[in-house]
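ok here's the first one, seq then struct tokens
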Amino acid sequence: MSLSRKGIGIKSFLTTNVVEEFMHPCERAIFEKIIDILSSLSEIVHFAKFFGGVSQLEISDSSDAHEYSTGYYLRNFAQGIENALDDYYKETAQLETLTEQNTTHSLNYIYNSLEQHLPIIIFLRKLINDARIQKLNGCQLLENLHVSYDHGDIRLKKIINKVSRPVKLAFLSHLAHWLLFGIIDDEYSEFFINYRPNEGVAKTSCDKSYTSTKSSQSILSEEEIWQYEIRFSQLPSFVSAVLAEKILFVGQTVLVFKLDRRKIKTDSWIPKSQGPFCDDIDELWNGKEGIFCNLIEDLNQDDKIDAFELERAINQIKKYVSQRLSEIAVIEDDLERQLGLIKDFYLLGRDCSKRNGNG
């Protein structure tokens, strides 16, 4: 039961012949139950260590790694599993110390102590098996954790909170980068916003995910902006299709301001403004991007992502972006002057009609 290196030593212990050589037949059944618990724990620890980014010096390669998907969400999921095991590590270490100090404790005492953690171990194994069998990745993995909140066990609620938090951080990071900067850094196709180039375009979605992180405006074209779309296979249940469209709109609007807008203006419009009112996304947010970034980060304060709070935050950001678009249209493109000319045109037409009628 040594917890040196947090559970890695369990596997080597399970491969020994301790039961056959040193256990009395009367105690063998109890000891085998203890072994079953430790075996299940070993699977969980192995998953958390291998996919959570532990050095290969600490754990050998996982033979079933090919059965899982790849990506940042899976790595964060494994880190969440590791966080959920912290309390177990501490309590088991206390049990070890107590057993070493008092040799009169029976195997049944040890088994009863370990059995208290069995519901948590079974729950964690289920989450891991779901990820393996369904090959969940990205928002699919987050969705599976989201629906796993529906139970009445307070201990399991605490566990799912710890497991979900790193995965929620990955999701909110993707969301913030898209909404505020128009960036999709999505090497493993984990987010529900996807870049889909037109047929005949050489760049792949991964290539575009990489190039979209660059700050140079010259890499963007007006046509490319509208090639972003919703990947419904990764759309979690707490994000409705309508809300996803709003998220897509905000990110595409940000990308518009990454364009060299002087290139898309006609010559007749250039003299109306001595200089561009909005050259980049800094002017779009007008110094308020930090406020909206905090608004998104605050969504991780809740144990479970609140669909209503998420929608409220997105609506607030979309409202601000829409207002800024109106301001920019009025100032830079002299919208009031254009509307005034249209009004004068129709009034002039009415005056001419009146004069012709009087004549």
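and now the second one, same deal
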Amino acid sequence: MKYYKFYILLAVTLIVTAGIFAFFKPDQVTASSQINTVHQPNHFLSSKSSESGFPRENLNITKNQLEDAKKETILFHEVQDNDLNSSERVFASKSKNGMAINYNQNIIETKKIGDVVKFQMLEYGLNRSGKIVDIEKVDDDIIRWRGEFDQKIPERNYFTITQSHKDRYTIIQVYSDVGNYIAEIKNGQGRVQTMDQGIEDQELHDH
């Protein structure tokens, strides 16, 4: 009789334990999934983007413009100050120093994680290619691309491109072993300067 009660108690204990395990296990899996989802809610993965396949949902450009932007990898081209539009010349001349540039904002808009872009800053002795490693949605309009230069120490050689599509305003920051640079661009034209001459990308929120 003594052993009979023992076996009954053991059986009940096993049944209750199994029931508790089955009840709580799905919740633990769900909670774990939720935690992993919360870590980077504003970052795009290579397989996660808009229906168009690009970080931004609607670029509002023609098919030809889209195809040209997808094929292009050079982000901007140097121009003379006289080549700047009169309305942008004042904007780009906050400092007399720096390299005046033309910039097509659609080029970076068509780039995804793993794509390569090129920086031709010959005035500063910089001519490099870099790969996009992260894309962050700052808010409903502003997106930031981050990349690393090929065959360089990534902690010291990287770039960020923070862009408002609505305001056609962009800040590019370049960090390299030959110097750090920043470009402020409005309506496709702007100026590249050394970092101590430029502005902070927080100013993007003011435009």
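notes on #2: The radius of gyration is 26 Å. The beta strands are 43-44, 76-78, 99-103, 116-121, 126-137, 142-149, 158-164, 169-176, 179-186, 189-194.
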